[in-house]
Write a structure and sequence with these properties.
By secondary structure, this protein is an alpha/beta fold. It has 2 domains: 250 residues, Metallo-beta-lactamase, Chain A, CATH 3.60.15.10; 42 residues, no CATH class. Helix 10 runs parallel beside helix 11.
Length: 299
């Protein structure tokens, strides 16, 4: 299976800190580079980590609060100056088209092609090897969570092929499609030489208060990425600003049967002691971790 690369370009909250930039997460798979949110300074984060922003193929916006989108104007300008030739596909909640038109008005010589799609709840993309799902969240404005789902694949067991002396020919494709074949008068069942390689699921839930859709979209995730803006000590602030507590993030991971929880979007109040966030989450879901800017994960 081709590998999935998950890169955290920004893991901070509304106010960036010395060590945490505004939100931005990159999923790279095959020829796709999918950017989830683009906080202020994201293009510089690309430079620091050594990835060209011109490799971006699609951008997914969770919601239109500044710490998640203020990197877009600078990114667009850099892409235009870098002679970006692709059509940049952008997906986001209701209002995305209007907000992007305002950004375009701000930038002189806007020489990149955009394809914009506003969404609510649906399978956004259904490509050959992967899907993107979205579900609405609860944050006071239109907002979305996303899942990247790498599809299951049927693989051929090379050892079995060799044992059965099957030639490298179109019959192998028939077997992969689940069709039995007859060769040299002998029947070969697809089940004899094929096996299923399970896909992968990465779910990204950013700014939201706890709601049923959190559990639904996160179901059976290999990696669940959620905001963790507050501990239970700040429950009132979390309710006021519609954010998740660390324990609520852990509850989503546990109830959704996710395998691993990565906590992001940390407030500056926890800059010196992020362990408060982690300890609260681990009491409910042991396989919890806090991510930092420039962390990379390979699946």
């Amino acid at each position: 299976m081709e590998k999935i690369y998950l890169t955290f370009l920004g893991t901070g909250n509304a106010i960036p800190t010395k060590f945490r930039n505004h939100s931005a997460i990159l999923i790279s798979y095959a020829n796709e580079n999918l950017l989830f949110d683009c906080g202020e300074g994201t293009q510089r984060q690309f430079k620091i980590i050594g990835i060209s922003p011109t490799k971006i193929t699609r951008i997914f916006i969770s919601h239109w609060h500044g710490d998640h989108i203020l990197g877009l104007p600078g990114l667009f300008q850099t892409l235009a100056m870098s002679n970006y030739q692709k059509t940049l596909k952008i997906y986001g909640p209701k209002g995305t088209k209007r907000f992007l038109s305002l950004i375009q008005e701000l930038i002189l010589d806007f020489h990149i092609n955009l394809e914009i799609r506003e969404i609510e709840q649906e399978t956004l993309l259904d490509e050959k090897n992967f899907q993107i799902h979205a579900m609405p969240m609860s944050h006071g404005i239109s907002s979305l969570a996303y899942s990247f789902i790498l599809k299951d694949k049927i693989r051929l067991n090379k050892k079995k092929l060799k044992q059965l002396k099957l030639p490298n020919s179109p019959i192998l494709k028939q077997l992969q499609q689940g069709k039995d074949i007859i060769i040299n008068g002998k029947k070969i069942k697809a089940s004899q030489v094929c096996y299923k390689e399970n896909g992968k699921k990465i779910t990204i839930i950013l700014d939201t208060s706890l709601n049923q859709n959190c559990f639904s979209i996160a179901k059976n995730s290999d990696i669940l990425i959620t905001e963790a803006s507050f501990t239970s000590k700040e429950k009132k602030q979390a309710e006021e600003y519609k954010h998740l507590l660390a324990k609520e993030a852990a509850q989503i991971a546990k109830k959704s049967k996710s395998k691993k929880l990565l906590l992001t979007h940390l407030s500056q109040r926890y800059e010196r002691n992020p362990k408060q966030i982690l300890d609260e989450a681990k009491k409910i879901f042991k396989n919890s971790f806090i991510v930092k800017d420039f962390d990379k994960i390979v699946l």
